[in-house]
Structures are given as C-alpha cells and as structure tokens.
Design brief:
Layout: H1 2-8, H2 10-17, H3 21-24, H4 33-60, H5 62-81, H6 86-114, H7 120-145, H8 153-159, H9 162-174, H10 179-184, H11 188-199, H12 205-220, H13 224-227, H14 234-248, H15 252-256, H16 259-265, H17 270-298, H18 300-326, H19 336-354, H20 357-368, H21 374-403, H22 406-425, H23 438-442, H24 448-451, H25 467-472
Helix pairs in contact: 1-2, 4-5, 4-6, 4-21, 5-6, 5-8, 5-9, 6-7, 6-20, 6-21, 7-8, 7-17, 7-20, 14-20, 14-21, 16-17, 17-18, 17-19, 18-19, 18-22
C-alpha cells in the first residue's frame, strides 16, 4: 500500500513514483533490503523458535507448544498494528515468527499422532488447507483495507491478524493431548483412554501395544538431538532436510509471499496486483482441497511427481511470457490481455504446488519420523523450511533486479532436481500405520542398508518403531 510504503519505506515509494531510468525498470522497483528484511525477518525468528519448540513439545506436550505460539502471535500483531517506526514493525514480525516456529513444529506432529492411518494424509493436509485459506483471507483483507480512505488501512490489515491468533491461543486450551505424548510423559492409562476416545472403539489393544513399544524406545532416548544423527535414522533425517529445502526452491514464496509486489512489478496497477493475489489465493485453496481428498487414494509419490511436472511447465511459461514482453530492460508494461495470460499461467503453477509440494512438504516429514526423535525431527523440518524461506525471501527482489526474467528458469531447474529426488529416493507411505513406518525404509533400494545395518553404537539399526506391529498384523 502506498501509504504504508511512504511512511516506513520512503525510498521504495519514491522509486515507484519517479520517472528516472532506474525507476522505470519494472524488475527493480521494490529492490530494497530494508523492505525485504521487514518481510523475511519473520522466517529467521521462526527458525530459531522451532528449535526451542522441539524441547517444549516433548516436555510439556503438543498443545502447550501451540498455546505459546498463539501468545507470541498476539504480541506481534499488537506491535505491528501500533507501529510508528520500522523498528517496531520488524520486532513485531520477529514475534510473529516465534509463533510460526512453535505452531509449525507442533501442529503437524499433533495431527499425525491423532489421525488413524487410513485418513492421516487427509487430516494432515488439512493443516496446509487452513494455511491456504489464511492466505486467501489475508489477500482479501489487504484488498479491502487498501481502499479505506485516510490511508490507515494498513494498520487494520496488520491488526486483524490477531483474530486467528486469538482463536489459536484459546483453542489450544481445549485440545486433548495425543496418546503418544501422554505415554511419552508417563501417563499410560490416560493414553489408553485417549486412544479409545479418538478411535471411537473400545478395543485398541493392538495399536496401544504399538504405542507402548514405541514409547519404551522413546523414553530410552535421553538425547534426541544427538540420536537423530545415528545411522538408523538417516532416511528420516534426509527427508526432514531435503523435502522442506526443496519445497522452498520451487519458488512458491516468490509467487504467494510477494504476489502483490510481483504483479505490481510486472506492470499491474496497485488494485489489480492485490486482486491478482486474491485470484492466486483462491486457486491455492481449491487445489489444496484436491490434495486433501486424493492423497490417501493416489498416494504421496503420484502427487509429488505430477505436481513437479506442472510447476515446471508453469515456471517456464511465466519466464517466457515475462521475457517476451519486458525483455532485459524491463521498461514495457503489460496490456490487460497479456497480463491476464500471465495470471492464468501463474495460477496453473500454484495449483500444481497446492496439491503436491505444499501439503506433502509438511505431511511426509511428520509421518515418517519415529516417536523417540519426532519432536527433534519436526524441529529440523521447520528450521530448514524457515531458513530456506528466509533465504528466498531475502534474495528474490535483488535477484529479480539483476537476473530479470531468467530467474524463473532458475526455479524451474530446481523443480527438475526435486522431482528426480522424489522419483528415486522417496518411498510410498500411503496407508502405512505411523508405528510401522520402519518397514517402508527396509523395503527401499537405497535406505534399507541404513535401517538394516549395525548402528553407530553397535546396536542393530532395525531396533526401532514398528517391530511390535509385525506381530499384531
């Protein structure tokens, strides 16, 4: 919003409204490290918070990690809405990042542990579905508040983030603990009662025995951060690093995070750029619904591979369209019909991400991690995700100014790499009970040598979760 930029980032505002040769270059209008720091500081603080959240999640339970995240969300919203200088803005963003770190660490773990195996993919993908709904609502709020006379709409936009933060904080108080967490903290009878409650049946002996076996292993692990580096956890550790890293190299945060800026940079007007962001948000939400209802039927690998092919085509098409119109100088503008074509192609890319790498980037790392190192593993996933989000967010606008339209081809190359990675190294986990996940790695051509070999300390690598499940099956 112009009023926001003129108050806090005047250099960007003047560059937008100047007629100098530098300012007419569409690729460089928003190239400001201070503006980028404001946006990306959230992800740097989320990275640090996710590491702390792992200990809180294991010691106090998943729900209290969510509660702490909600409290810091509220504090960040209050600071941002009341900001009178850039320092207050960035401090507010840092607090929001702490909330993101705690929520992203605890929520996927909570969902994976509460869900039955047959519906784990659908329920866990609900996490990503709500993220996409939040993105859409945020874009609608921005579009509406930008039209408020008097130029104070940005305060309302930033302050309204307190509404979902309040829901999260209050809602966490009413959440039950997961059976896994209750066992982990020494409450076996409560864990069995909770398992009966969430499964809706009285006979939960087989699953409970699996949880007890897994819990015994978990309590024997005094140092999960050290143990997760052991050879027998190598496949899971690779997934918890590679999947979130590659997820951010798809370029999705370039599209969703900077959508208004990107569309405005490409020659759309201010209102048109906000509306384009709303359109991509709608596509994101609808496509995530597709994943929710298909992930447990089609499987993880099929969605990963199809989504990768679709994103590759979308990024190549966007780069070609932008390059054909703006060229290297970037001084042209998009006519309405051409601009609509860019939005359509970008929406095809967003759809491919939203039913593949978006939700599955959170689902797969959370479901493959053994209980004894699960909080640490999820913290690694969140930390890598936030680090890469920070790097991409911090680097995108300067790179767009220097690389111009070939930047989209760079992201396309990353999509090729990650699709090849999935094809060769990611086994299918559809319908596999979370306690039996070790069997998946034992059957994989690459990972079986890690989980079946002797571990670093001389113990057998296959002594881990899921052994008890074999007898129950």
């Amino acid at each position: 919003m112009d009023t926001f930029l003129s108050r806090f980032f005047p250099s960007v505002y003047h560059k937008q409204h100047s007629s100098s040769s530098e300012s007419t270059n569409q690729y460089c209008k928003f190239d400001s490290q201070l503006l980028t720091l404001f946006t990306s500081s959230l992800y740097l603080s989320a990275l640090a918070a996710s590491l702390l959240a792992a200990s809180v999640t294991r010691a106090a339970g998943r729900k209290w990690s969510m509660f702490l995240g909600g409290l810091t969300f509220l504090a960040g919203c209050a600071l941002n809405a009341a900001a009178v200088n850039v320092t207050m803005l960035i401090l507010g963003r840092v607090l929001l990042g702490v909330g993101v770190g705690f929520a992203n660490q605890s929520v996927p773990v909570y969902l994976s542990e509460m869900a039955p195996a047959r519906a784990r993919g659908m329920l866990n993908n609900g996490f990503q579905l709500m993220i996409t709904l939040g993105i859409l609502l945020a874009n609608l709020v921005n579009y509406g508040t930008a039209r408020i006379p008097g130029g104070w709409g940005w305060r309302l936009s930033l302050g309204l983030a307190a509404v979902p933060a309040l829901v999260m904080t209050a809602g966490a108080l009413f959440l039950p603990d997961t059976p896994n967490s209750l066992l982990e903290r020494g409450h076996p009878e409560k864990a069995k009662q909770m398992l009966r409650r969430v499964r809706g049946v009285d006979d939960v002996t087989a699953e409970y025995d699996d949880l007890v076996s897994a819990g015994d292993v978990s309590r024997a692990v005094a140092h999960p951060w050290r143990d997760i580096l052991k050879r027998r956890y190598r496949p899971q550790l690779v997934m918890s690093i590679a999947i979130p890293l590659l997820q951010q190299l798809t370029g999705i945060n370039v599209i969703m995070f900077y959508a208004p800026v990107l569309f405005k940079t490409l020659g759309f007007g201010a209102s048109a750029s906000l509306m384009s962001a709303v359109i991509t948000g709608l596509v994101n939400l609808a496509s995530t619904l597709v994943s929710v209802f298909t992930v447990d039927r089609l499987g993880r690998r099929a969605l990963f591979l199809e989504g990768g092919a679709q994103m590759l085509a979308g990024l190549v098409a966007v780069g070609a369209l932008v390059g054909a119109r703006l060229g290297w100088a970037g001084v042209a503008a998009f006519p309405p019909g051409y601009a609509a074509g860019v939005v359509v192609v970008m929406c095809a890319y967003v759809a491919g991400f939203a039913w593949s790498w978006g939700p599955l980037g959170w689902l797969v790392p959370s479901e493959v991690m053994p209980l004894e190192v699960r909080p640490a593993g999820q913290a690694v996933t969140v930390a890598v995700n936030m680090l890469m989000t920070f790097v991409v967010a911090q680097a995108f606008l300067p790179l767009l100014c220097r690389l111009r339209f070939p930047l989209f081809f760079v992201f396309a190359g990353c999509v090729v790499v990650m699709t090849i990675f999935v094809y060769f190294f990611l086994p299918e986990t559809k319908g596999v009970p979370i306690e039996d996940m070790a069997e998946v790695w034992k059957a994989h051509w690459q990972w079986k040598r890690f989980v079946n070999d002797h571990d670093d300390d001389g113990t057998r690598g296959d002594i881990q979760m899921g052994n008890n499940a074999d007898t129950n099956n």
